[in-house]
Backbone:
């Protein structure tokens, strides 16, 4: 009987040729059972060895084992080769062409951020006042009831408290704490500091964020910004205050915008006035933003009330002064003719991009 291994060499050569011709890992996995697995020539040869005489069987077994190793090694080598090639193709496809990115960014230039409208307005306002000889100071946004109200001549339960819808942080003892409803409490800090450091007179502006329990509308935001002004000096009169307001209006809004002061009430000033400017949206003709009046209220002002001097311990016979406070957001609205102030907080890039 001819040995079952008589054609082994040509069978192995054929297997090696098939392995070499495998084109992908997927094809390799599909062919594996017929190359080295149960359905392979090698397995059927293995079975046929059973018909050999025992003394021939172990030699033939060893030969077949050697042949199998040879095929298995060729298969593993091919597997590694195909895996390497497939990885190379994948990386090639993922390659990031930096040249491409540069070309794209020339077509669509990357946008660079810029300062927001309110912070840039704040800086412009500061600049105007610095140009008029004022310094710029800062104060806390969380205040005790005393700074936000009492020292400003608004005792607890005073009806004027209704002028400010307040966010309370803490109603506890010994102090009630609030989010400041205006920048006026910074006046108090500044006077205390000037007194302690013997740094009178004061000519300062104090910009910052304020909070009120208001529903936002075209002219109001619940979080907004004010700039407070304070002058404490000798022989200060209402004419000095009116002059500062008028000079500020003309230099910030332009010479075609007028300001006017109208009698008003604020507990911390006497006399007090409301400070209005020509509505820049309708130039005084009347529109929705100014409720058809032609005027927009920017804030309040007045001569410092003696009660405020005494709250901080300043001698009202020696010192006199005025204060003012108005909305920074409102200034931005008027300067850039923004019909609805809510645009300032909506972060619509089409709106923001106009002010770069
Ligand atoms: N603090 C006032 C408010 O927010 C505005 C104001 C009025 C400020 C009169 C002043 C002032 O300094 O003198 O309604």
Residues:
């Amino acid at each position: 009987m001819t040995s079952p291994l008589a054609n082994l060499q040509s069978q192995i050569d054929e297997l090696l040729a098939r392995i070499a011709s495998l084109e992908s890992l997927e094809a390799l996995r599909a062919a594996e059972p017929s190359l080295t697995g149960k359905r392979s020539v090698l397995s059927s040869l293995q079975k046929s060895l059973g018909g050999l005489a025992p003394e021939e069987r172990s030699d033939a077994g060893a030969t077949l084992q050697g042949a199998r190793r040879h095929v298995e090694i060729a298969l593993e080598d091919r597997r590694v080769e195909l895996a390497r090639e497939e990885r190379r193709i994948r990386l090639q496809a993922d390659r990031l062409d930096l040249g491409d990115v540069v070309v794209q960014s020339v077509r669509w230039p990357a946008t660079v951020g810029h300062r927001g409208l309110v912070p840039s307005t704040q800086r412009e306002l500061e600049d105007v006042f610095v140009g008029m000889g004022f310094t710029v100071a800062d104060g806390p946004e969380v205040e005790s009831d005393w700074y936000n109200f009492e020292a400003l001549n608004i005792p607890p339960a005073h009806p004027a408290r209704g002028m400010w819808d307040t966010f309370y942080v803490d109603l506890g003892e010994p102090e009630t704490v609030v989010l400041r409803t205006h920048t006026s409490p910074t006046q108090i800090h500044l006077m205390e500091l000037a007194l302690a450091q013997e740094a009178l007179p004061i000519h300062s502006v104090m910009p910052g964020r304020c909070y009120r329990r208001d529903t936002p509308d075209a002219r109001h935001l619940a979080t907004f910004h004010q700039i407070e002004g304070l002058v404490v000096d000798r022989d200060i009169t209402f004419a000095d205050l009116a002059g500062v307001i008028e000079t500020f209006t003309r230099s910030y809004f332009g010479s075609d915008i007028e300001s006017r002061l109208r009698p008003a009430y604020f507990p911390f000033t006497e006399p007090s006035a409301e400070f209005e400017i020509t509505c820049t949206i309708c130039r005084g003709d009347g529109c929705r933003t100014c409720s058809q009046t032609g005027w927009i209220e920017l804030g309040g002002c007045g001569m410092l009330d003696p009660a405020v001097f005494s709250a901080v311990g300043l001698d009202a016979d020696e010192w006199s002064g005025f204060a003012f406070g108005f909305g920074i957001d409102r200034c931005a609205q008027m300067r850039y003719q923004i019909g609805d102030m809510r645009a300032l907080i909506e972060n619509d890039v089409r709106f923001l991009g106009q002010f770069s």
Observations:
- Residues 177 and 328 are 24 Å apart (CA to CA).
